[in-house]
Task: inverse folding
């Protein structure tokens, strides 16, 4: 099935859980669409087993520390973990201060925890595609948990995080944080809310979040719990993983996990088809000499933009709506 | 040519410079694509005469006051003005404090100054389309100048402002403003830089901007002048309009105005065609029952996203790349 023999060897190494092969395959998937497709053809059948946890929070909320603690907790239960960081300021992405990175060393050195950071592609589409692709590779590799770290703000963020089965929103005590949360629509998407650095007057924020939650009605019958943690001391991490497992049970029993993943697949397929078509259209438009004549006509006011666009469009549309 | 007789009457009123007709037509163009097209068919031939000035600057830079003063200066030279505000915090958009709006009253009451604010459509495409459409209507109405007010930040902003013939970037003295300017790429797009509120230590900022300009080489042979104004007292406004007229002369003589407008027309046509095609694709995707089967296959791992997307795409592509 794989034409490229090197690729075939790489894939079999990958299936023998070779970390280097994992790293190589992610790089290929990120940078070589064509070979990436071959890899997906070979690996995709082994996916769908990993559980994806999205963890979002503003820089400074300490979510990276929270994530490393959470990953360690998962490991202590014999589970393997893949981490995808989309926060450029995160120590996982090489950002942040040395102190943070030192703290990370412990988990970075664990062979069963694989960390990959995704450079923002600018466009949200590219970002969510890269995240999805890497998550799929982690899944095929056999990771039990995949943790996605994002900065919780903006539509791009929300698009990315939608691939998660459980979404954890991290807050820290600090002026207006809870209001920001509602603005950013964070609360609507959060399945679990965490107040980290809870030692800094976290109860007040926790209360604000509970109150904010009261004003949202949810169809799913799940009221997001508000947890308090002090990640740097490992306080509340066990409880967080338990909350994640509870949410997982809830959506599995309610059939919401299936639904969530089906919806996501449908969105993704449409996303891909649209971007591919746009590529084609763009190519055609740039080859089409007709456009230059039309520009002249619009410039000289023989045509207006919309009539010109119609003239350019009609033949294309005819072709493809038949 | 216009089928709709009410529309025909509206257009003839518009051509008799009826302000109410102008307002109605803008509303139609903004909200009714089909009738909007008829209007463009009728009006577009009368466009291309107005000179478009884009004025961009962060909220608080005082650009709204600057714009009203500038509009008054244009009026004092017997010119008519249309203002399009895309800054939700602008008094033109009904934002800002009462004080500002009181200050605006003077120009709002001038029958030869027409103000329209565009609500952000979220997507940059919608925003620049609406702005273009309204500018075209102002142009057809016979406005000598069209001023577009935007908050100078982000790609959406830059797309919108590109329709302007002369771009004025407004800064105010304040920490890091000049650095922000370079970050936002504001300086690359500015034809004229204005330090407003210059009484607040504006010379320092002006110097910073001059230095920033030194690090950009331009092909056009135009070095953006850095002006200082105190808009609220009308200081430096006359000089600003003269700088605008000088830039206008420069780009007219150098043939850059034509070029700029041709490029803009081409970009716009492509924009429209792309969005129309996307609509069609979207429609087809949502009607296409095939997608549900594919989602099932991907969910059950018979297919992966990319092979599924290919299956959906191939027939469409075949049709329209022939």
Result:
């Amino acid at each position: 099935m794989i034409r490229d023999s090197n690729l075939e060897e790489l894939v079999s190494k990958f299936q023998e859980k070779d970390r280097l092969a994992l790293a190589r395959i992610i790089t290929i998937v990120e940078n070589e669409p064509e070979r990436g497709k071959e890899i997906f053809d070979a690996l995709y059948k082994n996916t769908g087993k990993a559980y994806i946890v999205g963890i979002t929070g503003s820089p400074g909320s300490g979510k990276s520390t929270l994530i490393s603690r959470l990953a360690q907790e998962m490991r202590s239960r014999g589970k393997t973990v893949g981490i995808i960081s989309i926060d450029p300021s995160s120590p996982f992405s090489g950002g942040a201060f040395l102190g943070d990175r030192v703290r990370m060393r412990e988990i970075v050195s664990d062979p069963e925890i694989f960390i990959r950071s995704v450079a923002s592609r600018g466009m949200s589409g590219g970002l969510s595609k890269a995240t999805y692709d890497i998550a799929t590779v982690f899944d095929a590799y056999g990771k039990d948990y995949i943790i996605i770290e994002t900065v919780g703000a903006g539509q791009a963020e929300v698009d990315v995080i939608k691939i998660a089965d459980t979404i954890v929103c991290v807050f820290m005590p600090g002026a207006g944080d809870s209001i920001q949360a509602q603005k950013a629509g964070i609360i609507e998407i959060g399945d679990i809310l965490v107040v980290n650095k809870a030692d800094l007057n976290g109860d007040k924020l926790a209360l604000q979040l509970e109150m904010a939650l009261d004003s949202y009605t949810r169809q799913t019958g799940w009221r997001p719990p508000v947890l308090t943690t002090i990640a740097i001391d490992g306080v509340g991490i066990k409880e967080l993983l338990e909350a994640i497992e509870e949410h997982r049970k809830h959506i599995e029993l309610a059939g919401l996990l299936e639904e969530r993943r089906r919806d996501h697949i449908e969105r993704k397929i449409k996303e891909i088809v649209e971007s591919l078509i746009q590529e084609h259209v763009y190519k055609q438009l740039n080859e089409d000499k007709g456009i230059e004549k039309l520009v002249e006509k619009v410039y000289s006011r023989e045509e207006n933009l919309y009539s010109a666009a119609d003239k350019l469009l009609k033949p294309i549309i005819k072709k493809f709506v038949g």
Notes: The first helix of chain A runs from residue 5 to 15. Chain A has three domains: 1-46, 47-254, 265-321.
